[in-house]
Description:
By secondary structure, chain A is an alpha+beta fold.
Amino acid sequence: MFSGAQLSLHPMRDDFIAIILDAIGALEPWRSRLRIETDDVSTLVVGPPEALFPAMRDLFVRAAASEAHCVLHATVSRGCPGEPDDPICAPGAARPAGGSMAERVAAAAGRVAGAQPVGRSVAAQFSLYPLGAADASADGMGGHMAEIMGCIDFLKASGCFERSKNFCTKLRGDAGPVFATLAEAFTSFGAPDGHVAMDATVSANSPSAA
Amino acid sequence: MFSGAQLSLHPMRDDFIAIILDAIGALEPWRSRLRIETDDVSTLVVGPPEALFPAMRDLFVRAAASEAHCVLHATVSRGCPGEPDDPICAPGAARPAGGSMAERVAAAAGRVAGAQPVGRSVAAQFSLYPLGAADASADGMGGHMAEIMGCIDFLKASGCFERSKNFCTKLRGDAGPVFATLAEAFTSFGAPDGHVAMDATVSANSPSAA
């Protein structure tokens, strides 16, 4: 299954170029498992989810170590029928095999509980889009909304939940469990082989953080 | 239909706070038509699409006038079954009434052709997510993918198309037609009353722009 992300890193400081170039160095240990291409708006990273999310974490934590107010934006996708498949995307470990919603929520929360902290506090917000799933019920809440509601149940059990917002859910905590929470939301909800997209924003060192 | 956006503005300069506060002033003429709420990650703007996109344009063009490298990220949504309806979202003008794909592509391109330039060059990339539409065909390309492919046909006729990327499409041009193109993609594709989301990134003054 083809999976990857378009990443944009925004350090809000005069020396943003130096911060970005330094942060890209944090991707080095991941390069054998990812295909990376850059233009003036974003960097494409293609690879399996279990490499994508830790690579994003390492990139962002390195940038945030500058103590500049930094924001990472990620457009993440798996299973898009319009993308070619790529051998680099084959998962190296068994992915969640589906299961009932309650089982998936519990398993995902269990994996986040095992995530190592990295010593950097972040805020994040994201939206999850399970595509190609019909609305199943008359009130319009079936299909993709059932997966979204199940994901929100998981988020509330993740230890990183801050609050529901319009169009997205906000997380706060150490970057280790926060990026693990994003990874679990992306892989455990929506059909295992379905087309799922995520729109995520992660912020550190904001002068207006609560 | 409930519609709105979570907006994050990122000026990559030491004085980013002053640039953001000044840019928010550009939203003043739109305040009667929008509900606006801010936290440390984003600003929620609720209102009809015909106010949302010009308001985003004015916010971003004001920030870019600082000549700092600025990026706007927008998570835009309409028709989400999980959101309450809000009277402020009622469209003030007739929205596209659907029609065949070829008719919608031509009508949307015609409206972009009438968009006024504002004198600021930008790059943009975005993804469109028509939700709750089942895959209709055995090759997985029906339903939501048919709407996405139709939207890409429109983008190629918009005058702002730069190239297709993995997971998104990239635009380049004057901010006037570029934001008009985003508005048309959001309103003319996906079911007229369906749940549609957009993930958009707009960039100006990039030192690495082509």
